[in-house]
Amino acid sequence: QGSKPSIRCACVSHAMPGIARRGAYGNDGYSRHAGRMGQAEDYVVQAEGAKEAGNSLLRAGDAAQALTHYRDGLQFVRLCRDIGDDVRLGEELQRRMDFISVTLHLNSAQACLRIRDWAGAIDHADEVIAVDASNIKALYRRGVAQSQSGSGLAAACDDFSRVIELDPTNNEARELLARAHGKLMTFYDLLGAHPGASTSQLRQAYLREAKRWHPDKADKEDKALATKRFKDIAEAHEVLRDPRLRQLYDTYLQHRFRGHVGIEDPDNPNGGSMNVAFQDWAEFRRIFEGALPHTGVRQESDEPDLDPPISACEWLAAGCVLLAVWGISAWRWNRRQWLKCLPLDIYYVHEEYSVPMAFLMSPLFFGSIPWDDSIRWLRA
User: Fold this and answer.
1) For residue 13, which of 72, 54, 58 has the smallest C-alpha distance?
2) Residue 236 to residues 186, 188, 227, Cα–Cα distance (Å)
3) Is the pTM here over 0.70, yes or no?
4) How far apart are the C-alpha atoms of 284 and 255, rounded to whole Å?
5) Which of 54, 98, 199, 356 could lock onto 66 through a cystine, CB 3.0 to 4.6 A?
């Protein structure tokens, strides 16, 4: 049991599953006449040996071979569980079996991450979380795999948030959470604009969002969030207003979930291709920005214009005012035309008496001219 695991013996373990592999990982003290308890303990020891052999290979950088040993160990654990269904295992043996099972699944998830087997990493992490929902390593590794698979970004954010809740000092989880949020929200989402929007539409969207998220208008407790969002909006406008950078960003959006982009291999005379991996937009821009031709772009001021375009309500209010002015003018013109069609005597009475009396009785002159003087003026 104390002997060092050997790779040569491990290769023999792939020939036959189960009992035939009992000497592969350092314990050949198995007796054919031992009871079921002894057989179960032998399987646990074999699983522990497989774990140690896999750990050595994983540290050496051979994740694929390490994953093979971890799978051997999980096979021994399953055989031990089958025995546990028939006989009652001791408390210590049960504890060792549960511990080695969790460890093998965690290490298998790590090996799957090394070889970019995202689905396998998620499956192994799920096995651990089904037993221990607060296992930080399982949550973290499942979040990493989900963030790389593309379709599980929202679930990855949930896993990273849970890790931060359990371990507030985990800065790696915070960084990956911010990166996952960045993958979910594009520059178009930040501006609230359609990917096919024109330059002027993007400019209007930028002015609207910049005014909305300006730090000077935020409450004290929200100032940090508003400042970060304001900077993100400014970066989004800087990229999308430049046709060259916008083309590069649209290419990034097409490949962001895969995490790599295929390009022609300049060192291959046969015209082969190679994959260039990237983590986020900043890295993608740093790698490929120099490969695009420069275009003449008019540089605009980085200072946001906080005067937004006229809103729909303002246009509606202006229309109502114009409509009211037009209605009053039309009414006065129709009224004057109607009065001109009256008999001359009635028109004179209206023009020489009613209009002056209304003028004198208006709030502008009422009380400022004696009543006798007003009557005398009307009779004159």
Assistant:
1) 72
2) 8, 8, 14
3) no
4) 10
5) 54
